[in-house]
Every structure is written in C-alpha cells, then in structure tokens.
Amino acid sequence: MHTITRDLADQTWDRLMNIEDDDTLEMLIDRMGDAQPAAMAYLMSMGEGDFNEDEQEFFLILGMWIWQTLVASGSELAELNDDHFEAVREENVPWLEEMAEESSVGWVAIARKIVAAHPQSALLQATVELIEEEDEDVIREQNRGVLLIFLKILTEALSLQ
After folding, report:
1. Distance CA 20, CA 158 (A)
2. Distance between the two ends of the chain, CA-based, in angstroms?
3. pTM of the full structure
4. Do residues 149 and 99 lie in contact, with contact meaning Cβ atoms separated by under 8 Å?
5. What is the pLDDT of residue 105?
6. Which of 22, 41, 72, 104 could disulfide-pair with 141, CB 3.0 to 4.6 Å?
7. Would you state the pLDDT for residue 77?
8. Among 76, 68, 88, 83, which residue's Cα sits nearest to residue 150?
9. How many CB atoms lie within 10 A of CB 148?
10. Which residues contact 110 (CB under 8 A, 6 or more apart)?
11. Per residue in 86-107, pLDDT tens?
12. How far is residue 70's CA from residue 120's CA, in Å, rounded to a whole number?
C-alpha cells in the first residue's frame, strides 16, 4: 500500500468537488459499488439512525474521496468483505468509546493522537480538516469524532493487503 501524500489527497478532493453533474457522481458511486461492494455497503449503513441526512451524505462523499485517493495512489486494493470491516471495526472500538465520552470540542485532541500514529497520517489529517471545516448545519458537533473514526475504519480496511 502506498502512503498517501497530502498533495494527492488535496488533488483528489478538488477533482471530486469539481464534479458538476449528477450523472458523473452517480457513475463514480456505481464504480465504487462495483469495485468495493462491502465498502459501499459500509458507507451506506454506518451512522444509520445516528447521522442525519446531511451527515450521511457527507460521510458518503468523504468515503468516496478516501477510496478515490487510494486508487489514485496506484495501490491495488483487494475487494473487501464484511469480515474485513468487522475486524477493523473491532480494533477501533476503544477509539469509538473515547470519542463517545469526549466533549464535542475534545474530539480534535483525540484526532491529533490518531493522526500522529497512523501510517496514512496525511490522508487522516486531511479528513480531520474537512470535518472541522464543515458547517455545523451539515455535521453536528457531537458527531464529528464518530464520523472521523468511521472514516478511519474505512481507510484501514481499504489499506489492508
């Protein structure tokens, strides 16, 4: 697995944000669903019941961006299954619990610890910044940390070799 650079993460985000028509976005969603059906199912189901519609949509966009960034790095991604996600999710339960106990502003301190020790630190740092920058009308404060951990799980599952 290639280590993602901040430049690549930013370029991929810019490309994704410059998609102007719904057909192209739908095609990208379909392509991810075909290449990584378990990852797409994960993106569609995580946060269900906890995330509102805007948060769910933002989660999907960030998940697609992570997948696109890993693909753009030239890394070959094995097709994942539910067992991969469950194993990675289990490894991240302590982070989920810590985020759930933390105040809404405390999630950033936990995020810094995660980013500092992560093999894909540039990608996770960019993820943290995108979550931080998003308006509270889109992502409620209490869901920012959990959203990060869900995306960390996706990054790690897709990074398995």
Report:
1. 27
2. 7
3. 0.92
4. yes
5. 61
6. 104
7. 85
8. 88
9. 25
10. 95, 98, 99, 102, 145
11. 999 999 999 988 887 766 568 8
12. 10
